[in-house]
Amino acid sequence: MPEVIPEDSAGLVTPLAITFQESLALECGAVLKEYTLSYETYGELNANASNAILVCHALSSNHHAAGYHSMDERKPGWWDSCIGPGKPIDTNRFFVVCSNNLGGCHGSTGPASTNPDTGMPYGKDFPDIAVKDWVHSQAKLSDTLNIKRWAAVVGGSLGGMQAMQWAIDYPDRLAHSVVIAAAPRLSTQNIAFNEVARQAIKSDPDFHDGNYYEHGVIPERGLRLARMLGHITYLSEDSMHTKFGRELQEGSPRSGYEMEFQVESYLRHQGTRFAAEFDANTYLLMTKTLDHFDPARDYGHDLTRALNRAKARFLVISFAGDWRFPPERSREIVRALLENNLDLSYAEITANEGHDAFLMKNPHYLDVFRAYMDRVANEVAAS
Amino acid sequence: MPEVIPEDSAGLVTPLAITFQESLALECGAVLKEYTLSYETYGELNANASNAILVCHALSSNHHAAGYHSMDERKPGWWDSCIGPGKPIDTNRFFVVCSNNLGGCHGSTGPASTNPDTGMPYGKDFPDIAVKDWVHSQAKLSDTLNIKRWAAVVGGSLGGMQAMQWAIDYPDRLAHSVVIAAAPRLSTQNIAFNEVARQAIKSDPDFHDGNYYEHGVIPERGLRLARMLGHITYLSEDSMHTKFGRELQEGSPRSGYEMEFQVESYLRHQGTRFAAEFDANTYLLMTKTLDHFDPARDYGHDLTRALNRAKARFLVISFAGDWRFPPERSREIVRALLENNLDLSYAEITANEGHDAFLMKNPHYLDVFRAYMDRVANEVAAS
To answer: At what angle do helices A280-292 and A188-202 cross, to 10 degrees?
Structure first.
């Protein structure tokens, strides 16, 4: 909880929501008759609506990307390190929009929402969502906000995948695509970890085949395990070692079965907190979305061909210690962009924090990111 | 199932067991009043009992290291690639012993065994077991078999840790210590993965606080998750990619929520098979044993000092693609051995199979291993 809002904060922000009273055709063939997107904005839209930045969120976050909802809020939005006055995504210069992805559990229509056909929560009947659907729904939001063309679409991890999909699906609607700590598709190991997380949720007796809402329970044990596991893949071996080493939890016996390492109680705590906040069906849905993301699939498994339609200029950033989406995966994207002769900046950042590095205040990272966004802001100012 | 037993197989083997009608004092302070060790032997003990090799098993295996129990057995013992006539541990030259670790679930006394004090299964009351206890009980077995000194104590992974502990605790009772794909202690990340596996088991409603035996159930869901997760850490990213890539399961839809990658059903299958065979309390116990293993702890966290008592000659082997216990961890052992001026061979094998490489028929690995064991056999012959 901030005693005073820091000067470089986006400040107190109020979540917004818009309900679209029109249907949305999804990639899977299903149709959402109506849908709501919750979102937040930071900064001011300029007169010709040319300074708008769309921020796309990762697997388990939401539309609260920066600032505080109230003076009582314990922590600011998830990307407060990068969004705010004077930060890389400078809210003095940009109008920033971040929406909760469709299928989410923070205000946007998702499995816990009421299915208009039944009057009950969708549960497991919520349709499959593809990254293309997120991009499509975000384009609808852009229309509503009268943003014809984003100065940049920006995201880390699964957010970076959305930024890439935007460049493919709406080549004329963004000037820049910023793809951070992402991959052109998941590796076999990535899918394997996701499947263990899904099985943890699905095998929880409180899951009730996805209809736990009507039983008044949540698959807390499964979600907790899913998060504990996910958390290990977000951190590097190095950062875990630095943070916890083999230190024992306070009060732990020095040996034996009850002996407890700090890292164990830390993970359990993370898992328990997450399980209290996040919807299990959303977790299943979003990991499946992530597994299935593969823009090259429709182009003979050739990412270069997939990106052939793109016109945006790109910033791609990867982190040396990221074993979830390591630099080699970003280089696949870079190679495909180069082969299309697209304007491109690429930075590989030395960092110790693993995949989570994209959320951290790493000076080199922030400098590279800021330098690029300054260029974007200067173009906006000159336009 | 073999139609004929291959010529280089240890052949048909019969599991043995010995019950010690004497107490065993454990590291944790508890005492086992009596205990059974199940074991197998391959080859013939020579007249002066100088050709005996002790093979130590890893987390989830057992005393069935080589050969077949019957012509109907689907697969040979877990280290059949390395034990048999003409193989690195050549049963024409050596007498090989492998016992199920104390606390196990394949015949040796463990949590599912009857507690003589209560007439009920030990369950969660089974005492903590340390690697030192395994070594101690194996020494008792050696006495019974009239083996005063092992030509070599050999093991991979947690088995390699036992081989190292043998050299520390019984410096005069082994000539060689062969430490394969091991580490001097677990990393924070190793512990973290183990804790997720334990939580999966403990949070299964069928776990009943470890006393599931009396409820006539097993925590099948938890064990299944634990194994799926473990399995990912045994394979390399590369080998998973080569084996499964992003190939879809036969009959899977090409997109959507029901779409299924081969790696997903493979992992589920592995998990289900394991859960039917392995005891959950043993899994909890052995992962804790592994987490707590740290021979340097009692020597001011100095591995060199811990190994100062060792007299054995060492072969240390690591595998490039092993991200569970990568070569850097073996090098820590090598460094400590060098600082003690101990006789040492070290090989870092280029392999694609991850941690499981130590079970595979990698030609370079087998050649290095065979060359070293030939030296051991020649010493035995000359003695």
So the answer is: 160
